[in-house]
Amino acid sequence: MTATLDQLVAPGVYDLPFDQYLADPVAGGSLSASGVKRILPPGCPAKFRLWRTEPREDKRHLDLGHAAHKIVLGAGAEIVKVDADEWRTNAVKADVAAIRAAGKTPLRPSDYDTAHAMAAEVRKHPVASKLFEPGTGKAEQTLVWRDGPSGVWRRSRLDWLPDPLENRRMLIADYKTAKSSAPVDIPKAVHDYGYHIQGDFYLAGVEALGLADGAVFLLVVQEKEPPYLVTVVELTAYAMKVGRLLNRLAMNTYAMCVANDHWPGHTDDIALLGLPPWVESLYAEEINKP
Fold first, then answer.
1. How many CA atoms does the CB half-sphere of 287 hold within 13 Å?
2. Which CATH number applies to 2-287: 3.60.9.10, 3.90.320.10, 3.40.50.300, 3.90.105.20?
3. Cα–Cα distance between 168 and 147 in angstroms, integer?
4. How many CA atoms lie within 13 A of 248 on its CB side?
5. Cβ proximity of 17 and 6 under 8 Å
6. Which of 23, 81, 93, 166 sees the fewest Cβ atoms within 10 Å?
7. How far apart, in Å, are the Cα atoms of 143 and each of 120, 209, 242, 290?
8. CA 218/CA 71 separation, integer angstroms
9. CA 173, 161, 230 angle in degrees (round to 5)?
């Protein structure tokens, strides 16, 4: 089902370079999980519209994660080791800039070694190694489909699209690097980064395109410090339902904004606001005295 950019005329699975995916190749525009997170509070439609059109920020602090992603999945920007621990001289800065301009990821020698060490730990993990096993699927696949209730075109870029297996549920795994992969810390990250929104978005695409019934979304979370611990997570049904609710709200908002060509800020009305709840609770007894 893999196609190329010039065939992007209908719902389906497409094999697109990352920059073309980011540029939104769907005629008339589409909504991704990243867009959902910018439409919903604390974002708003006005911020989403600016984000969609402005140049993307060069997040160099994410280079290590991108490199580990490339090694684990076998797809993504080429990694180039820069033989200098400090990037302060003009010559090294010029080399790094040229690498970035070519669409590649420059790494210090220590980060280069770390990325490979992280990938080695993923390959040793009894579950994670199976989820991204070479020959069992395709990396970096783009799903494009049209949402029925809202009519909005949607797109997602899956880290890994497994080949269908008879009598087995499809496991849609997404690789994340993090400060901590401890189960006690992951729920906050899920909320902060909207992984439940992303998970529901991915599964909606898989279902809409008829790729699998009852697929499961998994997170493969790995720490960026030794010993590079890995935790594989399945989100609860409740978390996924919250993700679906938020996606529906964002799609309805997006559809209304497109129809009216109006992209409001946080509110068009007067906002009646008080103090933070924890502050109000400090004074509740005095305020409520008869």
1. 6
2. 3.90.320.10
3. 26
4. 8
5. no
6. 166
7. 29, 8, 22, 61
8. 19
9. 25
Q: How far apart are CA 250 and CA 40, in angstroms?
A: 6
- Find the distance separating the first CA and the last CA of the chain, reported in whole Å: 70
Phi, psi of 156 (to 5 degrees): -140, 150
Q: Distance between CA atoms of 151 and 154, rounded to whole angstroms? A: 9
Q: Report which of 63, 158, 172 is spatially closest to residue 118, judged by C-alpha positions.
A: 63
At a CB cut-off of 8 Å and minimum separation 6, what does 244 contact?
A: 200, 204
How far apart CA 113 and CA 4 sit, in angstroms, is: 34
CA distance 57 to 189: 21
CA–CA gap between residue 203 and residue 213 (Å, rounded)? 9
